[in-house]
C-alpha cells in the first residue's frame, strides 16, 4: 500500500537547519529518524503510514512539523483536545482520533472536524452509528469526505485497554460496511501489550492475533485481506509491528518527547489508553 509523498515526509530542503528554531529542528529530525527506522524494516519503501501522536503537546509542535516536513498525519487521544487543535491548525492536516472513544463524543467529532481522516478506536456498533450520524450531518451542510474507521480489537484481554473481543470484530466490521454509508472501514487496530514486545525473541502475540482477526473479517465482509489495514505499533514496538505487517503506526514520545501528566494538562472527563 504505497503512501503519497505528503504522508511519508522528508525534511524540507527549502528550510535550512540554521533557520529553524531549536525545538522545531529537533521535532523534524525526530520524525525523519522514525521514518528511516520504519523503512529499514518495512517490506517495501514508504509502505507504512506514520501517525505522529501529539497528545498533550502544544499545537505549535504540530505546526512546526507540518510546515517544515510536509507531514500530514497527526493523532490525538482526547476529543476536546482534538477539537481545539483542529480549529487552530491548517485544514491540510489529516487527523486521527486514537484514544478511547466515548459514544457521546462521536457525533461532534465526525461533524465538527471535516479533516478528521479516521477514527482508530471504534469498538462497538453504537459508536459506529454515532459517528455515522455525525458525518451524515456534516455531509448535509458541507462537501466532505467519508470518515475512515478502524475496528479496535483488545487482543491482549487487558482490562485497561479498550477494544472489542476478537470474536466480535467481524460482526462490527460487517455493520460498518453495510449500515454506515458515510464511513469507510479501513481496517483493524490494536494496542499490543508492551511486555510481549519486549520479549524480543518471539513475535508479539497481539500483532499475530490482529492479523488472524483481519483474515476472519475479510471473509465476513467479502474483501481481499490486503484491503484491510493493520494499525499496530507504538514508540516502543513499532519496528516489530512493521516487520509483522503493520500499515499504520502511532508514534508519540519518540517524536515529541515525554508528555506531562494528564492532570497537569487540564484534560478531564475522558478515558485514556496508551497509544503511542
From TrEMBL:
<protein>
    <recommendedName>
        <fullName>Pyridoxal phosphate homeostasis protein</fullName>
    </recommendedName>
</protein>
<feature type="domain" description="Alanine racemase N-terminal">
    <location>
        <begin position="30"/>
        <end position="260"/>
    </location>
</feature>
<feature type="region of interest" description="Disordered">
    <location>
        <begin position="1"/>
        <end position="21"/>
    </location>
</feature>
<feature type="compositionally biased region" description="Low complexity">
    <location>
        <begin position="1"/>
        <end position="18"/>
    </location>
</feature>
<comment type="similarity">
    <text>Belongs to the pyridoxal phosphate-binding protein YggS/PROSC family.</text>
</comment>
<dbReference type="InterPro" id="IPR001608">
    <property type="entry name" value="Ala_racemase_N"/>
</dbReference>
<comment type="function">
    <text>Pyridoxal 5'-phosphate (PLP)-binding protein, which may be involved in intracellular homeostatic regulation of pyridoxal 5'-phosphate (PLP), the active form of vitamin B6.</text>
</comment>
<dbReference type="InterPro" id="IPR011078">
    <property type="entry name" value="PyrdxlP_homeostasis"/>
</dbReference>
<dbReference type="GO" id="GO:0030170">
    <property type="term" value="F:pyridoxal phosphate binding"/>
</dbReference>
<dbReference type="InterPro" id="IPR029066">
    <property type="entry name" value="PLP-binding_barrel"/>
</dbReference>
<keyword id="KW-0663">Pyridoxal phosphate</keyword>
<feature type="modified residue" description="N6-(pyridoxal phosphate)lysine">
    <location>
        <position position="55"/>
    </location>
</feature>
<dbReference type="Pfam" id="PF01168">
    <property type="entry name" value="Ala_racemase_N"/>
</dbReference>
